[in-house]
Amino acid sequence: MNVTSDHDVLVLGSGPGASVLAAVLARAGANVLIVAGDSHPRHRPGETSTPILSWLLRLLAARYGVPEFARLADAGTAREHVSRRVGAERSIGFVQGGRERRVALPRAAASALLYRQDVDAYLFHTAARYGVRVRQQVKVAKAEVTADRVLVTTVRGETYSARCLIDASGRDSAAAAALGADLRDTEGPRTRAVHTHLIDTGLAPMDGTTHHLFDGGWLTLSPFAGQDGAVNPVTGVRFTVDADRFPREEDAEREFHALLKRVPKLRLRRVAAVQPWFSTGVQQYTRTQCAGDRWFALGATAGFTDPFLAGELTHEFQVVNALAWRLIRALAEDDLGAGRFAGLVALDERLRAAYTSLTADFRQALTDPSRLDAFVERWELGVFHATLRLHDATVSLPDERAARACEDLFPEDLETLREMTPPVFRSGIAALRETGRGLTAVGRLRAAARTSPSPEVRRLLLAATPDLVRGRL
Ligand SMILES: Cc1cc2nc3c(=O)[nH]c(=O)nc-3n(C[C@H](O)[C@H](O)[C@H](O)COP(=O)(O)OP(=O)(O)OC[C@H]3O[C@@H](n4cnc5c(N)ncnc54)[C@H](O)[C@@H]3O)c2cc1C
């Protein structure tokens, strides 16, 4: 067999998780090749971002020495260094029966609303600048594991060899199928999505993603247009519906128009798509096997749940954060057996279960305002809590303990947090959002810190409050 080239790590696919991991490994001295079936720039759905996602990017930047990731964490730096076409995620809204609840994100935690074609290209170029070799427009047909290598063969018959394969080529991965990792259904909610980008919708300016709820689903609007300093005229639109009640239709555009009738209060000046209409089947799946000797399935290759509130990208970056240092160590010790990945597979499953339960909770709230209030509060507290933990881990570097401790940060922590957090914590957060009330907020949060039964929350609150006041969080 003629081997075209040999590397330490072969990364299949060039989505965000693939590029971030490849850049980190190359930065650590590994010889990395990305092989992808498409080329950049290309459109992908998935604009919504949250402070958790931003803080993960900051943590990855600091922990692995790739400052380029952190530029994406903030709308201002992303517009300056990545693309003027990204937006700002200053608040996240939920509209139900004409009533809107908006979660205002702490001012300096405003994330960048992701204009994916530019963001994905930026991350891919970052990987290439750190020395990752790239082969685009190359389709992989199969993969096999030998005693000391993984061999990946393309449809054109070229073979690439590597000590390890990270498969980030998604649901239809030919490599994963060849390695015996079949798709399987998951338990829990089954949703579908219909997505595109619209131009000139005529909607009132929004300063972040908004969800319009209805019986059976919700419409997510991600506005690049109409924001301060915006140069991008598009709005990302995505219907997410119960897959059993709304089976896939042949014509995605017609389905979109039919679903739009379920949000009668939303008036669009025109429905003019500037990306292909895109509709999915049931989104949720997992695999019978997600790792083996010398290979690991990353992100959507391993499984998928609903990408609600940036859950998919957040989940993928969390796994990259936990995978990268283990892989660097495994390469150095030349031990890439399946055992190296066992803990990561478990982490991946726990994260998927947690994000699935978040979506399930939200679905319960679609027609019930009191449940929506509870959901929004839980999510808001969770964002705050996760942001504090990630912030804490980032400022504690190079001490690795804090970074490792937040690798399995779950939305489930929120329930526990709500139980153990006194009401003053909530009112402290509320006060933080009111202009000129910073000092009151600090007082309240410090009071919460003193009375919280949890040493961890006490420590985090005390550590975080000065930064909150200065608006740096
Ligand atoms: C409708 C929808 C809405 C979403 N909304 C959000 C959101 O709001 N927020 C969020 O965080 N996430 C969202 N997501 C999820 C997000 O888009 C994905 O998590 C993200 O794109 C990463 O996926 P990926 O890297 O696996 O896939 P992709 O970005 O599609 O990358 C797959 C890569 O694998 C390559 N590939 C595939 N097959 C082969 C082959 N045989 N040989 C070689 N290369 C191959 C492709 O060329 C490509 O480079 C959404 C997803 C969908 C479907």
Question: Can you tell me about this structure?
Answer:
The chain has helices spanning 16-27, 51-64, 75-81, 116-129, 174-178, 252-260, 311-333, 342-364, 369-396, 400-405, 413-420, 423-433, 438-451, 455-469; strands at residues 3-12, 32-35, 87-89, 91-96, 99-104, 111-113, 133-135, 140-145, 150-154, 159-167, 183-184, 191-199, 210-214, 217-223, 234-242, 278-279, 285-287, 291-292, 295-297, 303-304. The chain is of the alpha+beta class and 473 residues long. The radius of gyration is 22 Å and the shape is globular. The model is unreliable at 469-473 (pLDDT under 50). Bound molecules: flavin-adenine dinucleotide. Flavin-adenine dinucleotide is lined by residues 12-18, 35-38, 44-48, 139-140, 168-170, 172, 174, 193, 195, 238, 280, 299-300, 307, 310, 312-313, 316.
Short summary of the structure?
The protein has 473 residues and is α+β, with helices and mostly antiparallel strands. The protein is 40% helix and 21% strand.
